[in-house]
C-alpha cells in the first residue's frame, strides 16, 4: 500500500527502478499520479470478483467486468478525442474504471441474501 503512495507522489523514483528511458518516464509519471491512488479499488474489485463466484453471483461479476471495460474504453475515447484531454484524460478514464469496478462488485456482494434458517425435513 505504501508503494502506491510513493508512486503517486514521486513517480520517477518508482519508474527509475525499472527503466531510465525518457519515454517511459513521460508516460509513466502521469499514469502513476492519476491511477496509483485508486489501485486499491482495482484490488478490492478483483478480490470481490472471486467472492461473487463463491456466493453464486458470478454473472454479476462478469457483468461488472463487461460494463466497466466498455465504460473505460468509451470514456477513454471521449476524453482523448472529444474532450481533447490527451493521455491524462485516458488515465482518468482508467482510474474511473477501477472505481466503478469496485463499486459494482461491492454492490453485487452486499445484495447476497443469507440463507434462510428454516429446518429441512428428511424423508
Secondary structure tally, helices: 6
Count of β-strands? 0
Return Rg in Å.
19 Å
* Structural domains: how many: 1
Q: Are there runs of 5+ residues with pLDDT below 50, and where?
A: none
What does this protein look like?
This protein has 123 residues and is an all-alpha fold. It has one domain. It is 76% helix and 0% strand. It contains six helices and no strands. Helix 4 (39-54) packs antiparallel against helix 5 (58-82). The protein is elongated, with a radius of gyration of 19 Å.
Can you describe this structure in just a few lines?
With 123 residues, this protein is an all-alpha fold.
Topology, element by element:
Layout: H1 2-9, H2 11-16, H3 22-35, H4 39-54, H5 58-82, H6 86-110
Helix pairs in contact: 1-3, 3-6, 4-5, 4-6, 5-6
Keywords:
mainly alpha; 123 residues; single chain
Amino acid at each position: 500500500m505504501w508503494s502506491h503512495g510513493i508512486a503517486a507522489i514521486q513517480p520517477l523514483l518508482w519508474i527509475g527502478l525499472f527503466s531510465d528511458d525518457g519515454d517511459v518516464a513521460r508516460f509513466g509519471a502521469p499514469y502513476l499520479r492519476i491511477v496509483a491512488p485508486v489501485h486499491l479499488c482495482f484490488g478490492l474489485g478483483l478480490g470481490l470478483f472471486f467472492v461473487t463466484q463463491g456466493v453464486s453471483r458470478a454473472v454479476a461479476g462478469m457483468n461488472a467486468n463487461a460494463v466497466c471495460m466498455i465504460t473505460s474504453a468509451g470514456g477513454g475515447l471521449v476524453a482523448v478525442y472529444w474532450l481533447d484531454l490527451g493521455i491524462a484524460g485516458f488515465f482518468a478514464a482508467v482510474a474511473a474504471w477501477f472505481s466503478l469496478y469496485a463499486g459494482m462488485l461491492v454492490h453485487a456482494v452486499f445484495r447476497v441474501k443469507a440463507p434462510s434458517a428454516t429446518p429441512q425435513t428428511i424423508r
